[in-house]
Amino acid sequence: MPEFNPTQYAVPLFVVAVLAEMIWAKLRAPEAYEPKDTLVSLSFGLGSTVAGALLGGFAITLMLLAYDWRVVDFGPEWWTVWWAWPLCFVLDDLKYYWVHRAGHRIRWMWASHVNHHSSQHYNLSTALRQSWTGAFTFGVLFGIPLVLLGFHPVMIAICGGFNLIYQFWIHTEAIKRMPAWFEAVMNTPSHHRVHHATNPRYLDTNYAGVFIIWDKLFGTFTPEVDDEPIRYGIVKQLGSFNLLWSVFHEWIGMIADIWHAPWKHKLSYLLREPGWSHDCSRETSDMIRAKWQVRTGIEVAPAATSVADRNPIAGSQEAA
Ligand SMILES: [Zn+2]
Ligand SMILES: [Zn+2]
């Protein structure tokens, strides 16, 4: 089966859509685009492709090694098993949910994923804001169960490519709501705006890639409310359009924290959630939301509050 990367073919579509949204923004929402910010986002997109080409070999090698240990075998012509494709797509999306959730709850992984969130704008160019340092998070390990289930690494990569293409169009403010049935099952601009928001009620929710059902199933879904303007970005805004600082700021911050922390807390700065500190001098998203709830008396859906922690790694660090 020939190598096929669907994302490459989608690039012209991305360019046309970004230009169309820029025209929409000029007429309807001039604040949606900021030229310097768009330039940083596009550089992230370009750089992540280069980083993928340079560092992706490790992930591919690991997946191919694991494939030798598969417990199910779709045969030598695995790509002809038609039903394996939709099944792989759905399971890969489930995998995406967990990688993404870990990307927000484990600082080591957040150091890379923060790149996707550091823009204070929300438009189609934000979708292209992809990390350069994903290879250092070992997120590839989340895909191993799929390989062991017999899905060939190439099939998984193609499904992952289509998953990423799907997520492009949801990075927009131009679409308010899709039909109710669609909002119920699929990830949409409305659901993903919530994910990019820093408003306390929305923090660390809606991790979905294609199907929003995973968030509903695992208790991390929060619907968008219409009477509260969204503030996009990260809790502590970057305040800079310097590309290299944008790429590496969280890695630098994390390494500095580990360096300065007492020995028994060093590992926690790697594995606990962003904002955690051993002396409680900073705030995690759960602390921010809890304070906001006390201040406003607003009860958000239990789903959003219960995100608090099911991060088993963080839990085991509690005693550290
Ligand atoms: Zn995210
Ligand atoms: Zn996004």
What's the layout of helices and strands?
Elements: H1 6-28, H2 35-67, H3 84-105, H4 107-117, H5 124-127, H6 144-148, H7 153-168, H8 180-185, H9 189-195, H10 213-217, H11 243-260, H12 268-271, H13 285-296, H14 302-305, H15 312-317
One zinc ion binds at residues 100, 104, 113, 116-117, 195.
GO biological process, one term: lipid biosynthetic process
Keywords: Lipid metabolism, Membrane, Oxidoreductase, Transmembrane, Transmembrane helix
Protein name: Sterol desaturase family protein
Q: How would you describe what is shown here?
A:
The longest helix has 33 residues, at 35-67. The chain has a domain at 6-182. With 320 residues, the chain is mostly helical. Residues 303-320 have low confidence and may be disordered. It has 15 helices and no strands. The protein has helices at 6-28, 35-67, 84-105, 107-117, 124-127, 144-148, 153-168, 180-185, 189-195, 213-217, 243-260, 268-271, 285-296, 302-305, 312-317. 55% of the residues lie in helices and 0% in strands. The chain binds zinc ion (2 copies). One zinc ion is lined by residues 100, 104, 113, 116-117, 195.
